[in-house]
Design goal:
Number of helices: 13
Strand content: 35-45%
Structural class: alpha+beta
Radius of gyration: 26 Å
CATH architecture of one domain: 3-Layer(aba) Sandwich
Shape: globular
Oligomer: single chain
Number of strands: 46
CATH class of one domain: Alpha Beta
Largest sheet: 10 strands, mixed
Helix content: 10-25%
């Protein structure tokens, strides 16, 4: 094993190495720090004002964004800032439009759960193409807000709940889904037209099915053509999908049986068809997606001239992506591009159809599986491989065809930092970095690609958002969010702890990045308990140089060493690195977490007998698999909302990584928690929401039963009415008080 330490940690390690082991003392329970669990989950957020859903108005005159109320961080309003000057101002107050927002429907709850939206108020909005009005879905209806006057017109007032509301590309229509049918409103006349009428029960139009929302990152089922003549829309029939009856116990103690069409690994998916409808007549033409119904509709994009709909289709095992070019007038389609891999396809939203008919997009069909930018002709042939190398393009931000440039975010220098770059469209030069600092950037570019909204954070700097020129020069702040007096986190700044970074080496030689938070008032002559936090699954990166979760501060300020390592299979390292867990989840990830544990225990200031582990979702699964495959290695574990058997999880996610159960029986058996349950030794606290519709509660219920059958002792907490995430200030405070108390009892108490 090789170890490369960040400078501060190296100093700490040298100091501890100079001390005789017999002189160390064990850190015990400390006094309650100033940063309490109650304050961490109260309003306003300690992260400060963090605008979200940032965008330029179509005319480029202002920037709009969502921002939480100071008095309640869970309620969002729509704000704006004029480019020419002046302070940001509230454009739409959600509680003025809807003082008593009605309860969400089940469809809307599911949409928000899939998008991980826990806020209320205005959670999405949509500009018209002229920059004169904004569409605001709220209170189950849709408001049309005149930007100049601030006046809001309610487009409808119905008992039904309207979802996925948008303004058409030229601003003439608003579209939405109501009771599983797609509707369009003429914004000038107010006339409402049903594009479909036969949706209902198990059939829906214009909506994304469960696995598309949760696992494919597609949360809509309809797509306007730029000229507003056509709408591509999905028809979903869920009748083949198994009906999972689960008991939901709500906070008021009531219980009901919920029928959920949930396709578990190896079972049938929904039938998804694509049609292209003429807006004016409602005439629909089918698009043949494949020679089998057992596929996933992944994405739909339009050419700039509306003459072609580009349809991305994945095969069931997700190792072949076909992009079809469909004629909207006839529905006829032919392959435009086909990509295959022996690992799996990672989808993006990088397809950019240019005015000249060519396309910019990103592909992992490269050496090492590193995502890079390609320029393709109208017939799909490759014009230029725009970027290349052993690093990952995160996302395309803008294409400036006039100046021959592509702007993107990527991880060139290190997978711990994300920066914004420009690169010539013809690939004639290497990318040029246009952002500074040693942290993480995200960007939204204006339509002319002359300016961008940039958000930056690092371990000592919460998210700061400003307007920039394309050379990286700041024009003005949108939200400086400076850690000065008046900032919610300022009173706790003196106790702020920043992580140190390093690398370890996996069994196969792969470099693994880690971060470590040393305890408050760190003394290298003492020994401390430690917490190892993990996620471990694909499409996730936990170790980075951005602003970190307050949970790390919470534990470090309570006298814990807080440690995280990204194992093989994690994100932003290329598809080959990620694909090492293929067909064997819970194997290489555990091996690498044990490499991290061995290193953690080797530190003189860590008490090797007092190391805990915790994670949520895949991290909950990893907590179970790690402690069961290395019994006694950790002193205690907390597993939140864990998968316990991949046969209980959904098709699109599970089969992508594990193959079909019939083709990988041994892999499924070995990846199940229950295959290792005889090794139960490490004490566990198990947590699950009783209404979880993602990792269904049955995962934990079966585990409870098996452990009880073995006469094993464990602790558990369930949350009535809560889904995959536990929401609300009170519940969050209760839960984290419980978790900290659990670790204190297991890792700190000596009696």
């Amino acid at each position: 094993m090789t170890v490369r330490l960040a400078s501060l940690l190296a100093v700490a390690t040298v100091l501890t190495a100079c001390q005789p082991a017999s002189e160390t003392t064990v850190q015990t329970v400390d006094a309650e720090p100033a940063l309490t669990i109650e304050r961490i989950h109260a309003s306003p957020s300690l992260n400060g004002a963090a605008p979200r859903s940032l965008t330029f108005s179509p005319d480029g005159s202002r920037v709009t964004f969502l921002r939480a109320k100071d008095e309640d961080a869970t309620v969002l309003d729509l704000w704006a800032m004029d480019i020419d000057g002046g302070e940001p101002y509230r454009l739409v107050d959600s509680q003025v439009l809807a003082p008593d927002e009605r309860a969400l429907t089940e469809a809307e709850r599911q949409l928000r759960e899939r998008a991980r939206i826990s806020s209320t108020g205005i959670v999405r909005y949509d500009w018209d193409s002229q920059g004169e009005a904004i569409l605001v879905p709220l209170d189950g209806d849709v408001f049309y807000v005149d930007v100049a006057t601030g006046e809001a017109r309610r487009l409808m007032e119905t008992p039904e709940y309207e979802t996925d509301a948008r303004i058409s590309p030229r601003g003439n229509f608003a579209s939405f889904v109501r009771e599983q049918n797609l509707y369009v409103i003429d914004l000038e006349s107010g006339e409402e037209t049903a594009i479909t009428t036969d949706g209902g029960d198990l059939v829906s139009w214009g909506m994304a099915e469960f696995v598309a929302q949760e696992e494919l990152g597609r949360r809509t089922g309809y797509w306007w053509s730029p000229d507003e003549q056509y709408i591509a829309l999905a028809r979903v029939d869920e009748s083949p999908v198994d009906n999972i009856q689960r008991m939901e116990i709500d906070a008021d103690g009531s219980a009901r049986v919920v029928d959920q069409r949930y396709p578990r690994a190896g079972t049938d998916n929904a039938l998804v068809e694509l049609f292209i409808a003429e807006r004016a007549t409602g005439t629909r033409r089918p698009v043949e997606l494949a020679d089998t119904d057992d596929i996933y509709l992944a994405r739909v994009n339009w050419s700039a001239d509306s003459a072609t709909a580009y349809v991305q289709v994945l095969n069931r095992m997700q190792n072949e992506l076909t992009i079809l070019a469909a004629d909207p007038a006839s529905g006829e389609a032919a392959p435009w591009l086909v990509e295959t891999t022996d690992i799996w396809i990672n989808l993006t939203n990088d397809f950019r159809a240019l005015a000249d008919g060519s396309v910019i997009w990103t592909s992992e069909d490269t050496p090492g599986g590193f995502r890079h930018i390609q320029h393709r002709a109208a017939d799909g042939s490759l014009i230029t491989q725009v970027t290349s190398g052993a690093w990952v393009v995160d996302a395309i931000n803008a294409v400036d065809q006039d100046n021959g440039l592509v702007y993107f975010t990527g991880w060139i220098e290190t997978p711990l930092e994300r920066h914004i770059y420009s690169v010539p469209l013809d690939g004639s030069a290497a990318p040029t970095r246009i952002t500074s600092g040693e942290g993480r950037w995200s960007a939204t570019f204006g339509g002319d690609a002359a300016t961008f909204i940039g958000t930056y954070s690092d371990p000592s700097t919460p998210a700061q958002t400003a307007l920039y020129t394309v050379d990286g020069s700041r024009i003005r702040w949108i939200e400086e969010n400076a850690l000065v007096e008046g900032h919610p986190y300022f009173p706790y700044l003196d106790d702020h702890i920043t992580p140190q970074y390093g690398t370890l080496t996996a069994a196969d030689g792969s470099e693994l990045h880690y971060q470590i938070f040393l305890p408050a008032d760190f003394d290298p002559n003492r020994q401390y308990p430690a917490i190892q936090y993990l996620y471990g699954g694909p499409h996730s990166q936990q170790v980075h140089r951005g602003w970190q979760s307050m949970r790390a501060q919470m534990f470090a300020q309570r006298g814990y060493v807080y440690f995280t390592i990204d194992n093989r299979g994690s994100w932003n390292r290329g598809r080959d690195f990620e694909g090492q867990l293929q067909r064997r989840m819970g194997s290489v990830e555990v091996e690498d977490q044990l490499v991290g544990l061995d290193y953690l225990k080797s530190l003189d200031f860590v008490d090797a007998d007092r190391v805990g582990i915790w994670g949520w979702s895949y991290g909950g699964y990893m907590t179970l698999m790690s402690t069961l495959q290395a019994p006694g290695a950790w002193a205690a574990g907390v597993a939140g909302a864990p998968v316990t058997d991949w046969a209980l999880y959904d098709t699109a996610y599970t089969e992508r990584y594990m193959d079909h159960p019939d083709a990988n029986f041994e892999g499924y058996r070995a990846s199940s928690v229950f295959a290792h349950l005889d090794n139960y030794e490490t004490p566990l606290l198990l947590i699950h929401g009783m209404a979880d519709d993602n990792v269904i509660f049955a995962n934990s219920v079966r585990l409870y039963s098996e452990l009880q059958q073995q006469r094993a002792q464990f602790e558990m907490m369930t949350y009535p009415g809560q889904r995959h995430g536990v929401r609300g200030e009170d519940r969050q405070t209760q839960m984290w008080t419980m978790i900290v108390d659990y670790f204190d009892r297991k890792l700190k108490d000596e009696g």
